[in-house]
Please model this.
Amino acid sequence: MNELGLNCLRWVQEIRTPEGEAFFLRVTEWGEGFWLMAILGVVFWVWGGRVAYRAGLALMVGELFGSVLKNIFKIPRAWVRDETLLPVEGARWGAFGYSFPSGHATGSALLGGGIAVASRRWWLWLPALLWMGLVGISRVYLGVHTPVDVAGGWLLAAVVVGLAVWAVNWMEAEDWRSWAVMGGAVLLALAGIWLIRRQPLPEGASWFDHGRDTYRAGVALLAFVASWHIERTRIRYQPERLGAFRILAVVVGVVVLALMARHLRRLLAFWLGPHGAMYVQAAAGPLWIFVVWPYFLKGLEKPEAR
Model:
């Protein structure tokens, strides 16, 4: 299986073109953190929590599982296993750590699949599958993942999406179950961090660098659970009451997410250090989407709808 994946990358490397590289460099961005959070935010600000919380739980839990699996399997990148394999340089900056499963393929499948399953709209499967497929293909075309890495990410996403949607459906049947689901998510975050701490540390690596994806995913999951609880119990955001202001909600919300993705970590690093800034940035996305921005949007509700 390992050699088959490397042979596929050798073949792709021979047929790559500058135009194809430019196209798939743009496509692969759709599986990165900013786009995932922006899409999740748009779903919540426009349609509310029914779909967003199911897809969001799948995304946060699945990214945690994916990062843990990477550190358990410890499969090196293709160019480490075969020095003749050269990834496209523009894609290499985001291809750090181990190779299996693909984080981009996993993230896009978690969110796209989560939205499609939770919405229960058959026609949403077409854009969701197109998104997942293109992101997965882009990782192979750019030479940063093998087809096995991508397929592993898709399989993980399918399992996690099914479990997350079932968990939220089960939770909504009775109020007390919310504590079970949210408490379970917290335990998963803590267990993932503990498991990485139990892994042997590679020579010359620090604990922070070795498990940074897992730590970041764990913090994001904890922030998501806290935001979910605050919004459900305190804010109770209802986008249908905003009317046309939902357009403003999307525009401002996405712009702020873009500014945070570009500048927040760099600005905070001066006071918190690089690791502290990374964790704050991981928590800032869910808090902005589900707590801070909805809190201000409540003031735009139509008076007669209050």
Summary: The chain has a mean pLDDT of 90. The CA atoms of residues 78 and 285 lie 32 Å apart. Residues 2-305 form one domain.
